[in-house]
Write a structure and sequence with these properties.
By secondary structure, this protein is mainly α. It is built from 12 helices and no strands. It folds into 2 domains: about 50 residues, Homeodomain-like (Arc Repressor Mutant, subunit A); about 130 residues, Tetracycline Repressor, domain 2 (Orthogonal Bundle). About 75% of the residues lie in helices and about 0% in strands. The radius of gyration is 19 Å and the shape is elongated. The chain starts with 6 loop residues before the first helix and ends with a helix.
Length: about 190
């Protein structure tokens, strides 16, 4: 049996839907409250202001813990684990592409939004990937700085997610598994210890 959704979660999910269509700047608390089926006072009681609600939406949508769970199932070989990690990251990015695009468009707004936060979604995800890659660098299986390797690996996945609709003829953009295998091959050819 599904658990009932509490009011706070209902507001976060509604905000996600409104932001998906209008962006963070365009989303109004009134519209979010209406979509959630609550009054605006309830929204403010739970979050205080629009900015705090947006931060809650971003935290709710961040896959860092989900990626940790995926990585916990890994047993090697490294190539297979990277493919599984890349697939999990790609699936999440594809499900969040609207939020990603708004984040790119509204990057100046996000800077002020997260100015008081030590946490950022991209750094939370990057920390998970760094931790995974660090183990393989320390074992001698990969060479390089784990932080830089994570940026490269994530960059490949991110680039595909945001450009997928721009290159509809490319197999890299139409075939997720093919693309991830290709990216992992490129990544490993440049980082495997010789």
């Amino acid at each position: 049996m599904d658990r009932p959704i509490d009011t706070r979660e209902k507001i976060v999910l509604a905000a996600r839907e409104v932001i998906k269509r209008k962006g963070k700047r365009g989303a109004t608390t009134r519209e979010i409250a209406d979509y959630a089926g609550v009054n605006e006072a309830t929204l403010f009681r739970h979050f205080g202001n629009k900015e705090a609600l947006i931060v809650a939406v971003v935290k709710h949508s961040c896959p860092d813990m989900k990626l940790r769970d995926v990585i916990a199932t890994f047993h090697g070989p490294l190539e297979d684990d990277l493919i599984a990690l890349g697939m999990a990251m790609t699936e999440h990015m594809e499900s969040m592409i609207d939020m990603i695009r708004w984040s790119l468009v509204e990057s100046d707004y996000e800077e002020s939004l997260f100015a008081k936060e030590a946490w950022r979604p991209q750094t939370a995800v990057r920390a998970v990937v760094v931790e995974f890659l660090r183990k393989h660098v320390e074992s001698g299986e990969l060479s390089g700085e784990p932080e830089e390797l994570a940026s490269v690996f994530m960059g490949l996945i991110f680039a595909r997610a945001v450009t997928r609709d721009k290159f509809p003829d490319s197999r890299l953009h139409t075939d997720r598994e093919y693309a991830i295998r290709h990216f992992v091959n490129i990544f490993l050819n440049g980082t495997r210890s010789k």
